[in-house]
Write a structure and sequence with these properties.
single chain, mainly beta, OB fold (Dihydrolipoamide Acetyltransferase, E2P), 5-stranded mixed β-barrel, 2 helices, disordered N terminus
Length: about 250
């Protein structure tokens, strides 16, 4: 598929409103938190069929409410010429302003769990894509203002995904530094509660595989260019997550 490319630079400063800004992203720029090229090689996500619109009015309104968060400024996907895909989105931060590697203080829920199912959806204006994840909860590190402190399954969302429309056309949208979780895999999730939309936004996630930690989000790198906690053993990492969650209570 022909793919366009754009770069969105997000600068976040304490006590100020986060505003996107354009800066020089040429190789060798000083102070930027740009991942190396090998960190930007994302796995292709297999497209899933779009679900029909809910028939229940309340469910339909809830779906539209969820979708409005991911509206984009471009045209609806149905207006794209054949073979053209929506732009991917790159998000870079100055290293000093990047979100923390373990954002427990910003999270209402911190868990370890397995992704049972994922389902992509179009945004309300059909110009964006987001994915919902049904996560089976195995361990709770923090549950702030959550009615059930030991949920069995939760619903989480993240921008991006790959969807197949009823016409048969497939579209994908990636936020390269924040890829989607994969079905059947185990992660530690840092989640922000969206009470109105009845779900959680994924702030960041770490895959746990064969007793090792695999960072999936590359919005933050260490001064040596490595991703935080890359290759840590599971036990040490979960202890660090527990400490960060306790400090955030």
């Amino acid at each position: 598929m022909k793919r366009l490319s754009t770069t969105v630079l997000v600068l976040t400063a304490a006590l100020t409103l986060a505003l996107p800004s354009l800066v020089d992203l040429r190789a060798g720029s000083q102070g930027t938190n740009r991942p190396s090229s090998n960190q930007l090689q994302l796995k292709e996500v297999k497209a899933k069929d779009a679900l029909p619109e809910p028939t229940d009015p309340n469910e339909r309104e809830l779906r539209r409410l969820k979708g409005r968060r991911f509206d984009k400024g471009g045209p609806p996907f149905s207006n794209y010429p054949e073979g053209v895909n929506p732009d991917d989105e790159d998000i870079y931060y100055f290293r000093e302003m990047a979100p923390p590697a373990l954002p427990a203080k910003d999270s209402n829920l911190v868990i370890a769990g397995v992704v049972n199912e994922q389902q992509p959806y179009l945004s309300a204006n059909q110009a964006g894509i987001y994915t919902e994840f049904k996560i089976r909860v195995e361990q709770v590190f923090k549950a702030d203002r959550i009615p059930n402190t030991q949920p069995v399954e939760i619903l989480a969302v993240r921008e991006g995904g790959s969807i197949r429309l009823p016409s048969g056309r497939e579209f994908s949208f990636k936020v390269t530094q924040k890829p989607p979780a994969e079905e059947g895999k185990r992660y530690v999730f840092f989640l922000k509660c969206n009470a109105l939309e009845q779900d959680f936004s994924i702030l960041t996630q770490y895959e746990i595989s064969d007793g090792k930690v695999i960072p999936t989000d590359s919005y933050r790198t260490e001064p040596d260019g490595k991703l935080p906690f890359d290759g840590w053993d599971e036990k040490s990492f979960l202890e660090e997550v527990e400490r960060s969650a306790m400090d955030a209570r």
